[in-house]
Write a structure and sequence with these properties.
The complex is a heterodimer. Chain A has one domain (18-143, 153-456): Formate dehydrogenase/DMSO reductase fold (Up-down Bundle). Helix content of chain A is 70%, strand content 0%. Chain A has helices at 18-30, 35-61, 76-87, 90-100, 110-131, 158-191, 195-204, 212-245, 257-283, 292-323, 326-337, 341-353, 361-364, 367-394, 409-432, 438-448, 450-456. In chain A, helix 11 (326-337) crosses helix 12. The longest helix of chain A has 34 residues, at 158-191. A four-stranded antiparallel sheet of chain B has the order 2-3-1-4, covered by helices on one side. The chains are: A mainly alpha, B alpha+beta.
Amino acid sequence: MHKESEIRYPLIIGDKTYHQITEDVCAPVEGRANKLWYASFTIAVVVALWGLGCIMYTIGRGIGVWGLNTTIDWAWDITNFVWWVGIGHAGTLISAVLLLFRQKWRMAINRSAEAMTIFAVMMAALFPGIHMGRIWMAYWVLPLPNQYGSLWVNFNSPLLWDVFAISTYFSVSLVFWYIGLIPDFATIRDRATRIIPKSIYSILAFGWSGKAKQWIRFEEVSLVLAGLATPLVFSVHSIVSMDFATSVVPGWHTTIFPPYFVAGAIFSGFAMVQTLLIIARKVVSLESYITRKHIESMNIVIVITGSMVGIAYLTELFIAWYSGVEFEQYAFLNRATGPYWWAYAMMMTCNVVTPLIFFIEKVRKSIVISFVISIFVNIGMWFERFVIIVTSLHRDHIPSNWTMFHPTFVDIGIFIGTIGIFFVLFLLYARTFPVLALNELKSILKSSGDNYKKQQH
Amino acid sequence: MSVGKKIYGLYNDDAILVEGAKVVVAKGIKVSDTYSPFPIHGIEKIIGIKWTRIAICAFLYGLTGLALAITGMYYFMIIDWPMYIGGKPNNYFLQNMPSFVPIMFEFTVLCAAHGMALTYFLRNWTLPGVSAKNPHPRTTDDHFAMEIDPSENTSMSVEEIHSLLKETGTVEVFEK
C-alpha cells in the first residue's frame, strides 16, 4: 500500500471510515436544511430577482439604460464579464492542474470549486449576451450559413476567439464536473429510501455500477480531461485579455496582458473558492475534510499569484515609461493620479498589499483572516478590471471627448443580481449535490487519513 | 441454483478483496468483475481486465477537431468571403494563420473532450435511464464485491466456490 511521510499533514482529520465519509457528505443532501440556509437562500433569491428585473428592463429598453456614453462604450458589463470569467478559473485549475501534479489536497475542494466555476462562467456569459442588445440574435456569433450571401463571422477577431474559448471552457468544465459526480450520485441513489429522491438520483447517476472496467475508464478519462483542461484554463483568460491587448488603445495595447490576466484569474478564483468554502465547511459541518491545511494551501496560491499580479502592475508602469510613447505614459499616469485614482488605490491595496500578510505562517493558518482577505481580493480584482477598462477609455486622444463614467441603477442592479443568481445556484447545489468528491476522498483515506497515518507510525 | 445466477463475495475492505482475488485466481477461478465505491488500483492485472484505449480515441477526436477547424476557417475566411479588416492579410491561409491559432486550439480541445466523454458514456453504458448493475447497495458506500460466473468456472461446483470465497475473508457470499 502507498505510504506517506510522517511530516505530511493528514488531509482527513478524525477517526473516519469509508462509511463515515459517506455519512458526512450525504448528510446535507439527505437531511433538512437549517434556518441559516433558508435565510441566505431567501436573500439570494430576492437579489437575483432584482437582477433579473434589471436584465429584463435592459432587454426591453435597450443598452441606453446603462451608463455608457460615446467615450466610454464599454464599462460595467465587460468589467463584470471579466471578473466572473476570472473567478471561473479556479475550479478547473484545482481539478485539472492539481490532478496532474498529484496534489491530494485538491480532493476535498475540487467538487465545490468546479461547481463555482460553472456558475461563475454562466454569470460571465450573461454579460456579452445582454450587451448585444438583441439577445435573440445571439446565435449570430456562430459561423452559420445565412441569407446575406453567407457573410461569415470574423475569425480574425479576438471577440470571436472569446466565443469559442468561453463555450469550450464552459462545456468541457461541465462534462469534467459531471463525470466526477456520477459515482457519487450512485452512492446517494443506493442510500435513498424515499421513492422520488431515489428515482431522481437514479437518473442523475446514469446507471453507474462501479465495475472494475468502469473505474479504469473513469481514471483515464479524468487524467486525459485534466491534460486537455490545463492548457484550456491558460488559453481562456489569455484570449479574454486579447480582447483588450489586440486593440490600439493606450493602456490596453500591451503584450504582458495574457500571463498577467491568467495570474489574476487564478488569484481571484482562489479567493472566491476561499470565501465560499470557509462558509460551506461550517454550514454543512465538513471541517474534518476542509481543514486548516487546505485553507493554508489555498492561501499560498493566493499570495503567489497575487505577487505575480503585483509584479505585472509594476512592469506595466515601467514599460509605459520606458516605451517613450507619451499616450501610453499618460494613460498610466492618469490611472494612478487622475480622477479615478481611488479605483487604482483600491486595486493596489486589495490585490498587492493585503495578500502579502499571508507570508506570515500564523496569518495564513487563521480562518478569520483568510476569509477577510479573500473578500478584499474579490473586491480588488473587480476594481482591477474597472481600472483597466474605464480609465483607459475615459480620456482618449481628443480632450473634448473626456468624460466620466456614471453607472445607472440598472448597471448596479445587474451586477448585484448576478451575485444573487450565483448564490442561488450555489446554495441549491450545496443542498442537492455531494459537495465533496466522495470516491476520491475514499481513495486517499488510507494514505492521508488521520487515523491510518497514526497506525502506520 | 437457477441458471444465469452469479456468485458475489462481499468484502468490507479493498485490501482484503485484492488479497482474496489473488487467492481465487490462483485456484484457477475466473473473476468476471469487481464492484467498488472507488477505483482499486492494480485489480485489473489480477483479474485480467485490459487497460482502456479511450485516450487513443481522445487523440483521434482531437485530430478531427483540428482538421475541421482548419478546413472551416480556410473556407470561410480565404475562399468564400475574404475580408479586409485591420490590414490583416487574408489572401493565403498561411499568412492569415496566426490569428486562426486560438480557434484551432479551442476546437481541438472541444472535439477531443466531448468525443472522449461520449465514448466514455457509451462504452461504460452509463446514460440517463440505464439501471445500475451493482449487486449490493453498499458497494457504492463502503463494501466491495467480487463477481464470479459459475458457467465460466465449471472446474468447481457452486458450493466449492462459496466456501473458497468465505475463506478469503468475505462479509457475505450471495447469489444474484
